[in-house]
Amino acid sequence: MKKTKGLSTDTLFRLFNYVALITLAVTIIVPVAWVFFASIKQNAEFYENPWSLPDGVYIQNFVEAFVEAQMGEYLLNSVIVTALSLGILLVVALPAAYVLSRFRFRGSNVLNSVVKAGLFINVSYIAVPIFLMLLDWDSAIKMIIGDPFFLNNRFILAVIYASTALPFTIFLLSSYFQTLPSDFEEAASIDGAGYFRTMISVMFPMAKPSIIIVILFNFLLFWNEYILALTLMPGDNKTLPVGLLNLMAAERAAVNYGPMYAGMVIAMLPTIILYIIVQKRLTQGMTVGGLKG
Asked: What does DSSP assign to residue 180?
């Protein structure tokens, strides 16, 4: 009898991977492309066939979103808060992660345990206590300077964002620093470099792939954060997610869909641009840790 040859296990596994990846890509690309096309449609086109391609480019949707819905102001607030948050986070997390991963001193185990415990704290659970604490501080400072300071303050929001992201960031950077060989530190010490100079000039450049992952991850976290921004910014300094949801509610009630999708594009575009810029380094950062072990 002749033995029939079937598909090998490797071929089936590869085929399954291709089908899964193509399906995942389609489920991501199609909705994003649809939002982009919808943002340049006139309102009448949504009633004819919402899945059809736009008849032309209707820029007025973006004008209405920027000017009338103040999305430009919300975008600027998000840029300021996100940039400040990333700056504060890196200034604090990089030295802390380096010291906790490369040195042993009295209390280092306790600090590492505290950092790991912070991974299990959900920001949603502490939003109200943070708000009440800042409200009390504002009540006290009003008696001194006459104006509130802690609420509706972009810098304070950035400090809180950075603080809530510290545990995961320190944990991730520490894990990477632990994989780096000590030969470079010893060579820098022989050349007369101190601990600070070695950290800045030798170890941080070597950790660049991991730092890029931290920047991208926390950028997405800060850029899309809604609960703290809604709770701690009750005034005019709203960030983009809060402004976007307000825009969506207003335009949906007015049955005016174009500006609503234009606002979504404004919120998505910086994230997509950043991912395109750091895509290559992001891939390197995800694989280099396993190569150095």
From this structure: S
Write the DSSP symbol of residue 149: -
- CA 78 from chain center: how many Å? 11
What is the Cα–Cα distance from 87 to 56, expressed in whole angstroms?
Answer: 41
Q: In whole angstroms, what is the distance from residue 28 CA to residue 31 CA?
A: 6
- Secondary structure letter of residue 112 according to DSSP: H
- Please report which residue ranges of 103-194 form alpha helices under DSSP H: 108-118, 123-145, 154-177, 183-190
Asked if residue 204 lies in contact with residue 211, where contact means CB atoms within 8 angstroms, the answer is: yes
Segment 32-68, tens digit of pLDDT: 888 999 899 988 888 877 778 888 888 898 988 888 7
Residue 60: its H or E element: helix 60-63
Position 282 pLDDT exceeds 80: no
The single-letter code of the amino acid at 229 is A
The structure tokens listed for 38 are: 């919808």
> Can you give the residue ranges of every domain in the chain?
69-291
Q: Which CATH architecture group holds 69-291?
A: Orthogonal Bundle (1.10)
Contact 84, 219 (CB under 8 A): no
Average pLDDT, the chain: 85
Q: 54, 39 in Cβ contact below 8 A? A: no
Q: The tokens of 100 are what?
A: 């906790």
What is the token pair recorded at 226? Answer: 């809604």
